[in-house]
UniProtKB/TrEMBL annotation:
This is MobA/VirD2-like nuclease domain-containing protein. InterPro entries: Endonuclease_MobA/VirD2. Residues 54-163 form the MobA/VirD2-like nuclease domain. Pfam families: Relaxase. It comes from Dyadobacter sediminis.
Length: 475
């Protein structure tokens, strides 16, 4: 079974027409001939209510209505196909189970999708037209949306449902490792690198040793090797993940994580876990923050920082944002395409991946998450005591009543918060501060002092007057 991810689009109707009809032939009535059999659908009310013969416009309109909730995703149409070897014809039940497994693994479990089977070619195949946006308006397409993960998925389905193993995909193994094409120059270069890495102090010294073996190196965002005798150019990533520029640097420093149970190359590892491992292994070997950013760029991630204000405390802080388009990046071009861009802040990733924590781990050799809000450790740093809303003046400082915002005014406001005074000001939050300041000014300008002694006397007299004029109860 071979899985293929088609180019994302913005027109559900066009995609559905392609899957259901043969545009090159018409029947005796002049209508397009049907070539696709609807074998499965989910979360599409039009098909649920009216069946497979309903006009495709109604299906497309329903999918677009859901997709329109997300204004950021310009291409909400996902088009996936699975092809089977000539002679293999899985039952519709098997096809349905494959689609359900795919939807669950690639983030489409709750999304609208329709599946059509084509048998008009030598090899039977199915087309999945899916909405990337769910009913809540969220783009849920899995971050594992790339060719390599499709290969792993195809191998799993072949084993799970007893399907034929497709030769074109034999290089992709189930355990997540990739069997590289047999190439004597590649094999020779890998052997040289494996032997020289333990003897190299840094990437520069490794390149010098390689030059003695007949390979020049070109370094930028990635690394490229050139065999001097033949002129053959080989990118580091072509040799394997362990031979990218970043991973060569990690192998030299001893911080590289191989393909273990929880390794970054394991297909079962979530994208968030991959990013966490990448940050933990990269920050300690990066001398500066720009070096850290450049290292993540080489792995296909964008890194941005932004100065912000905490809405609760009002204190400034720096936020870090990681972005990725979740497709296999070109090592020679670290710029990320806008299409399918995903993003997550360090705090959303985990509290220990905030900007301050990452910066404190730069050039330390090993990652230290103690005291940085890790859910597995208790912070040894005493929390900063919040400054009170009202600053109490020094007792030796004379209290003034003429200047709003002065120490005397602040002290007067604090007393007004807890005292019965001429203004009878009700203040239970900082929002009342402006009203209190106005009341203090009024008292200070029109009465004997800012606390309203004269005002209190007037209130007493008014109360007595009211009592005298109040009619007595009849006996």
């Amino acid at each position: 079974m071979i899985g293929k991810i088609g180019k994302s689009g913005g027109d559900f109707l066009n995609a559905l027409i392609y899957c259901k009809y043969d545009r090159r032939s018409v029947d005796e009535n002049g209508n397009l001939k049907i070539r696709g059999e609807l074998v499965y659908f989910q979360n599409i009310n039009a098909l649920e209510l009216y069946g497979p013969d309903i006009d495709l416009n109604y299906i497309a309109d329903e999918l677009h209505a859901v997709a329109d909730q997300n204004t950021r995703t310009k291409s909400p149409v996902a088009h996936i196909s699975f092809s089977f070897p000539p002679g293999e014809s899985p039952s519709n039940e098997v096809l349905q189970n494959i689609v359900k497994d795919y939807a669950k693994e690639f983030g489409l479990k709750e999304n609208g999708l329709a599946v059509y089977k084509h048998v008009d070619k030598e090899h039977e195949h199915i087309h999945i037209i899916a909405n990337k946006i769910n009913e809540l308006g969220k783009n849920t397409v899995s971050t594992s949306y790339d060719f390599l993960d499709m290969g792993h998925f195809s191998r799993k389905m072949e084993n799970k449902y007893g399907l034929q193993s497709t030769k074109q995909m034999d290089s992709l193994l189930i355990d997540g490792k990739t069997e590289r094409k047999s190439n004597p120059i590649h094999a020779q270069l890998r052997n040289h690198l494996d032997q020289m890495i333990p003897e190299s102090e840094d990437l520069e010294s490794l390149c010098v040793k390689l030059l003695q073996k007949g390979f020049k190196t070109k370094r930028g965002n990635g690394i490229t090797f050139i065999q001097k005798s033949s002129g053959v150019v080989i990118k580091g990533s072509d040799l394997g993940r362990a031979y990218s520029k970043l991973n060569l640097e990690k192998r030299i420093t001893g911080s590289y994580l191989p393909d273990d149970k929880f390794g970054i190359d394991n297909p079962k590892t979530t994208e968030k876990d991959k990013l966490k491992q990448l940050v933990k292994s990269t920050a300690p070997v990066s001398k500066t923050f720009p070096d850290f950013i450049a290292a993540l760029n080489r792995e296909g991630y964008g890194v941005q920082t932004k100065d912000m204000i905490n809405k609760k405390s009002g204190k400034p802080f720096t936020s870090i944002l990681f972005t990725k388009n979740f497709s296999i990046p070109d090592e020679n071009n670290a710029e990320l395409p806008i299409r399918n861009l995903k993003m997550i802040t360090g705090a959303q990733l985990d509290p220990e991946f905030k900007y301050a924590v990452i910066k404190s781990n730069l050039n330390k050799g090993t990652w230290d998450d103690l005291g940085h809000g890790s859910p597995f450790t208790k912070s040894t740093v005493k929390p900063e005591i919040e400054k009170p809303l009202i600053d109490k003046p020094n007792k030796s400082t004379p209290e003034t009543s003429s200047s709003a915002g002065s120490a005397g005014l602040d002290f007067a406001i604090e007393r007004l918060l807890t005292s019965n005074n001429a203004g009878q000001v009700e203040a239970d939050s900082a929002k009342s501060r402006g009203k209190i300041a106005v009341e203090v000014k009024r008292n200070a300008s029109g009465y004997e002092n800012e606390f309203g002694t004269r005002g209190l006397e007037e209130m007493k007299e008014e109360k007595k007057k009211n009592l005298r004029t109040k009619p007595k109860k009849k006996l």
